Known about the structure:
The protein contains 2 helices and 14 strands; from the N terminus they run ββαββββαββββββββ. The strands form 4 sheets. A 6-stranded antiparallel sheet has the order 3-6-1-7-13-14, with helices on one face. Strands 2-5-4 form a 3-stranded antiparallel sheet, with no helix packed on it. It has a 3-stranded antiparallel sheet with strand order 8-11-10, with no helix packed on it. The protein has a single domain, classed as Alpha-Beta Plaits, CATH 3.30.70.2660. The model has no long low-confidence stretch (mean pLDDT 93). With 242 residues, it is mostly beta strands. The termini are close together.
Amino acid sequence: MLGPNVRALIFDLSGPFAHYKKIFATTSALTYPLPPKTSLYGLFAAILGLDKTDNAYLNHFSEGNCRVAIQLLNPVVTQRMYINLRPSFGSLRSTENRKPTLMEFLDRPRFRIYFTHQDASLYDQLKERIRNGQSTYTPTLGLANLIASVKYVGEGAIRPSTEERVDSVIPKSRLETLLPPIVGYSNRLLEAGQYAVEMQPNRDVTVRDGIILDRNGTPIPARVRDLAKVTHAQNSANVVLF
């Protein structure tokens, strides 16, 4: 549980395409329908300009220090395209074979990210960078050529919620039970398995979970543990920070 007086930084993450490769995909590069939490760590580090040598930036995001919630603002839509991949880096050689590989991309993804961190200084730096549209390194959506738009929304107050409507994605470990559909809504639920939650600087993933989401971004009727209501201006959302 989060302590009292904790606030959440809120920003929107979007772009024309995104790709977050599933670890179990081999002959084709399939994508997760949302950014893994460990990928968000890389995004935060790029904006802040944290040291990338030997993945040192992950020391700022050790397990329990940082919590996020992810809300889908656009439906999950995918496209598959053949991409020519090369076996080596550097200048292209005439004798080098390029292999057409089928890759899956998220089409026009848009996510709302809720961010908290125990390090108040790091939190404030990230808030100022995003609010001012600044970034040390180019923010991307999984791959270097998939440029991300990062738009500041605001800062929200957090308090516990007992509602049975969840606006964010739900880690399966937090789910108690799904409930009948909310009147006026139709859910299309999807589970993203083997989702990376925490990672050490040696790139060992220490926590994985399944993630429950609605393909259309529709609120999910469910009982979950540690549901939080984040209120900003006249808006509020029930989210699971993990």
